[in-house]
Queue: 4 jobs
Job 1
Amino acid sequence: MNLLREFAQEAAVAVTEMPEALNGILRPECAAIVWDRQPLARFQDWLDGLAPEQLPKTRTILRPADVQRAVTRICDLHETPDCAEREMLIGDIAAMAHIFAEVMETDYLRMRLDVITNNACRKFHIDAVTARLICTYRGTGTQYGIPTDGPDPEHISTVPTGSPILLRGTRWPTRPASGLLHRSPPIEGTGETRLMLVLDPVEDPNDDAELHLIH
């Protein structure tokens, strides 16, 4: 695992090519970690060629073991073409959920699949969660950086498409906070469509305000 101290010594972003190294987020010096990987060309071409309404979209709370079945149902609801590439997408999301749940030691996840065509979350921020995994399957990836002289970072890095980033949130127990901010890239007016997976740990699903519905 290669630790990249791009912005400040106390706020490192780690980059790894091994999914098992995502537990590096537990290291005190690690503010975020990127699993750097290259999607298969035929998979990316298929996904990029789908109409926006065919992309799976949902917001739900579930156990990691139920993710594969849930995403399959979501794909059916949105008429995502049934093919080998669809199975690759479903399997990858399920694997991502399993890995993230193991790192965070959680029995439940909040899963969000978003189809974005505007400037959603374009302001740099820190999420009000313990930690969050974001993977942009289609379109420009999440951007991150650390402010120096103003509210926004001057040096902005972009996570590669298809590469998950695991970020600490404001509820992470380690103090002081790293200062690392992130945002969705501004794409309004470009015609770009993004497909983004977001996973959060859920301690008690009965206390969570969000609906446990697939839509």
Job 2
Amino acid sequence: MIRILYIFMGTVSVGLGIAGILLPLLPATPFMLLAAWCYTRSSPRLRRWLVNHPVLGAPIRDFRDNRPLPRGRLISILAILWTSIGVSVLIVDPLLIKLLLPAIAASVTAWLLVRQTRLARTPSPPGRLAN
């Protein structure tokens, strides 16, 4: 039963990830990472399919191999993040949420920038081209 639940959650995550490729404010990569995690716990065949897929698997492989994001992609991610948070803050009413959303965005931004800096300083493994 748990295996079926993981497969279901992974498949829903792949669907949301595909929607995230097409919709500008919905991120694709976190859903693909979640799908890979679910498939790892339920179906090696589905995980292999997802990780080796030429389009859907690229962000998973980049994350797995600790590759830094290309500068353009990082700028896009941060612009979309802060735009969606800004719009959300204008729409929501409770003050706590108005304060919490920018704090979450700042945390995600800090994590991305620290990860980028750390990965940019790490030499590429032998046989791998540096980004």
Job 3
Amino acid sequence: MRGFKELLSAALCIGLLAACAQRPEAPAVDLAAEAEAIESRSAEWLQLALARDAAGIANGMYAPDAVTMFDGNVSRGTAEIQARMEKEMAENPDSTLAWTTNSVQVAASGDLAYELGSWTFDPDGAGAKPGVTGEYVTVWKKMDGTWRAVADAGSANLPEAPAPATGG
């Protein structure tokens, strides 16, 4: 009987090992395609910004619990994000905005990524107020097959310091 139990145990172990070895691996994520998808979403977002569509941006680009942080202004959730954008658009009706994606890095899992880029903002378009440039980072999460921003932050570039005077 002892030999039968050992044989049965060995057979079960071999069966388990064979079952584990036959488990299909998850398909590899095409990271380049995912990065392109994020760049496409960013371009779509810019078109919504140019159309001054705060609701379209808040509800179409951001995750419901997203957070934005821009030069000291923090908004949490799409309702706050939309309200802040509508306020800024009302305060700057002639403003212009543009951004450029500099790089996108996608996690090996294919469901989380970050985008780095540069932006320009002119509060009065062709008016007398000077434009501002800055940098941003957007963290993207793939949710139900769609990339959505979960965190978005940016900062204006500081003006260049004057060159020190040389004495002579």
Job 4
Amino acid sequence: MDIVYIGLKRLSNQNEGHTQAWNALKSLAGAGEILRLSGGRPYFADLRGDFSLSHAGRLAAAAYSVKRSGATGAPLRTACDIERIHPTKDRTPLASRFFHPLEQRWLDGAANRAERQRRFYSLWTLKECFLKAAGSSVFAMKGAPSCVGEAGALKPRIGCGLL
């Protein structure tokens, strides 16, 4: 049986996100040990399942799965990301630093500022999920596969189980 848990929690203040996320993780771990891959991604030492945590502003998100690979029996990686949209911040410098040229063109094709913001955060969360599942950091984002196809639209799947 596959067990998947996805949760979203509203926090009483924006400073408790990290603490709440780790408390949830420690609860799942029980007496088990939590280790880190070389890229910093945490995992259960006993490989009981896989998890991902994220927090932004006054929201925290968690994903937990015990689904296993048919080929190796290892837990399949899961990932989640949540971002707080900052409608007044210009994300162009971040996009030019971290996004693939196809993604840049897709952003540039937005009809207006609001659509550009929606596109930016859609790309950012997809790519961050991909990187989390791969065990990499946000600094590897520029080298990650593009989430936008040659036709100039978001790809329906990028390998991290989203969309």
